[in-house]
Amino acid sequence: MDKFKRLDKEELDDYFYRIANIKWGLCRWGGSQYASMQAIYDSLNKMKKSGLTKEQIWDIIGIKIELSYQNNIERSIKSIKNYFIREYIDIYGDQISDDEQKNFDKLIAKKFKTLDEILNYCLDGSWDLWKTIPFIFYVIYPEHKVLIKKVKDSRSNPDQLFRGNKEELGIKAWILSLHFGVKDKSFFYFDTYPLSDINIQAKKQTL
Question: Which residues contact 168 (CB under 8 A, 6 or more apart)?
Answer without folding.
Answer: 63, 65, 146, 162
